């Protein structure tokens, strides 16, 4: 049924773009849809809360599901097709395949969530096979995920262009996320500190401070601001490989994951090699 609908779109000519989401759509998602409409003739948005990227103690059951509101937003945005599969459709009885990722998937998010990128890669590969888009859009807020998807597409020879959308932020700098609704009023104020810490971290690297010193200072700031810190690191922007301890000799990305109560926040920012 999905392929028939996509075939009808293709019959009208032009390119098809896919925007994969887990729903609970915010302005960041809608910006991706807008960018997709600017680049492609037809836009498909998928909404699927993928159980394979959640661990046993994570928020699969609590993850916000706002299907009606999401559909209204996408209709207003003139999305051509909304794909709303259920778990049985994506993972029918007897399903056993799994994509295992290395490279950009090693470290950072995979330390706290070792299941995560295999689950993401598997569901995205299935979506690519189902929709067969010419291009797909992912937000840069999930920067490691973006690089993992790009690597999977290269490794498995998917004929799809992967495009990243800039992170949209609230007025106080907090990166937009569907999980921000979990934050209490007090924690919501504290959450904005993450953007400040990453800005200071990136500025220190831009100014030529050795990477290990800049990271140590950022880690100390994060530890003072949040209930727990999973990581605050600078990595190579192109590969997410670890950087030498001295001043950065290539463009970098500073990335962080912190916790406020039961809510986990992630964010990242670019750092440029000093000229």
Question: What distinguishing features does this structure have?
Answer:
single chain; 275 residues; alpha/beta; five-stranded parallel beta sheet; 8 strands; 19% strand
Report on this model:
With 275 residues, this protein is α/β, with parallel strands linked by helices. Helix content is 39%, strand content 19%. It has ten helices and eight strands. Strands 3-2-1-4-5 form a five-stranded parallel beta sheet, with helices on both faces. A three-stranded antiparallel beta sheet has the order 6-7-8. β2 (42-47), α3 and β3 (81-83) form a beta-alpha-beta unit. The model has no long low-confidence stretch (mean pLDDT 97).
Radius of gyration over C-alpha positions, nearest whole angstrom: 19 Å
Distance between the termini: 54 Å
- Strand arrangement within the widest β-sheet reads 3-2-1-4-5
Query: Count the strands?
Result: 8
Structural class: alpha/beta
Quote the beta fraction: 15-25%
């Amino acid at each position: 049924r999905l392929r028939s609908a996509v075939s009808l779109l293709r019959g009208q000519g032009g390119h098809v773009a896919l925007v994969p989401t887990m729903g609970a759509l915010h302005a960041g998602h809608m910006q991706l849809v807008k960018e997709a409409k600017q680049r492609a003739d037809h836009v498909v948005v998928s909404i699927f809360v993928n159980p394979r990227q959640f661990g046993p103690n994570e928020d699969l059951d609590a993850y916000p599901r706002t299907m009606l509101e999401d559909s209204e937003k996408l209709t207003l945005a003139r999305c051509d097709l909304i794909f709303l599969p259920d778990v049985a459709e994506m993972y029918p009885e007897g399903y056993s395949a799994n994509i295992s990722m290395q490279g950009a998937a090693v470290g950072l998010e995979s330390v706290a969530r070792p299941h995560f990128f295999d689950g993401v890669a598997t569901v995205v590969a299935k979506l690519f096979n189902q929709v067969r888009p010419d291009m797909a859009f992912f937000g840069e807020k999930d920067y490691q995920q973006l690089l993992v998807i790009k690597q999977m597409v290269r490794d498995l020879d998917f004929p799809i262009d992967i495009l990243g959308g800039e992170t949209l932020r609230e007025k106080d700098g907090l990166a937009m996320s569907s999980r921000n609704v979990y934050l209490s009023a007090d924690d919501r104020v504290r959450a904005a500190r993450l953007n400040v810490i990453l800005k200071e971290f990136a500025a220190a690297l831009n100014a030529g401070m050795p990477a290990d010193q800049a990271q140590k200072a950022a880690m100390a700031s994060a530890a003072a601001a949040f209930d727990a810190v999973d990581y605050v690191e600078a990595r190579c922007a192109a590969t997410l490989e670890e950087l030498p301890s001295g001043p950065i000799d290539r463009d970098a990305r500073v990335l962080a994951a912190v916790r406020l109560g039961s809510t986990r926040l992630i964010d990242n920012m670019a750092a440029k090699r000093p000229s």
